[in-house]
Amino acid sequence: MAKVLSFIKSKKFVFTVAALIVLLLVFRLGMSFGYNRALFGAEWGQNYYKNFYGSKSPVSPVSGITDKGFLGMHGTVGTIIDLTSSTMSVKGQDNVERSVAIDGDEAIRKGSAEISVADLRIGDNVAVIGGPNENGQIEARFIRVFPQQAATSSNIKN
Predict the structure, then answer these.
(1) Overall pTM > 0.70
(2) CA dist., res. 153 & res. 133, Å (int)
(3) What mean pLDDT do residues 80-103 have?
(4) pLDDT (0 to 100) of residue 2
(5) pLDDT top residue among 95 and 64
(6) Which of 110-114, 131-135, 145-149 has the lowest mean pLDDT?
(7) Who's near 82: CB < 8 A, 6+ residues apart?
(8) Nearest to 108 by CA among 146, 136, 67
(9) 150, 145, 141, 153: which is closest to 122 by C-alpha?
(10) Are strands 125-132 and 74-83 parallel, antiparallel or unpaired?
(11) SS3 128
């Protein structure tokens, strides 16, 4: 019994117990951090739509977008290669051409200005958001025209 008491009073035992307590506190802190991180991830996932698209029934400044927001939308990004009064062909970076139906009711913006279909030009870089129609075209609801880049890698000379 005396040996046990002397061992308990020794510096080695006290150091071992203190180290175990510190390790348990660090483990508990790590569990708390992990739990909070998982809780944040779960809550963020449950609010995924709201985080990216706003409330469940957004009041959209873009005409023609329903209460589903931008979910279920189709679109394309690229350069206008053909343009008529009711359709335009857009060639994307993947060299795939997509036909876009335009009727004049879609919102078309260039910078902060709203423009009309007549202001679109072949060679304009655009992003189109819309939905599919029965002809396999993208029925445009919103068109964003991007400014032409001042210099591209193809026209820069060393």
Answers:
(1) no
(2) 37
(3) 91
(4) 72
(5) 95
(6) 145-149
(7) 88, 89, 122
(8) 146
(9) 145
(10) antiparallel
(11) strand
Instruction: Indicate the residue type of 45.
Output: G
Q: Give the CB-side neighbour count of residue 5, counting CA atoms within 13 A.
A: 2
Tokens of 28: 């508990």
Give the pairing of strands 87-91 and 113-114: unpaired
DSSP 8-state secondary structure symbol assigned to residue 118: G
Burial of 115 (C-beta count, 10 Å sphere; 0-12/13-18/19+): middle
d(CA 16, CA 22): 10
Phi, psi at residue 45, to the nearest 5°?
A: -65, -35
Q: How far apart are CA 103 and CA 81, in angstroms?
A: 18
Q: Band the pLDDT of 69: cuts 50, 70, 90.
A: very low
At what angle are helices 11-46 and 2-9 packed, to 10 degrees? 60
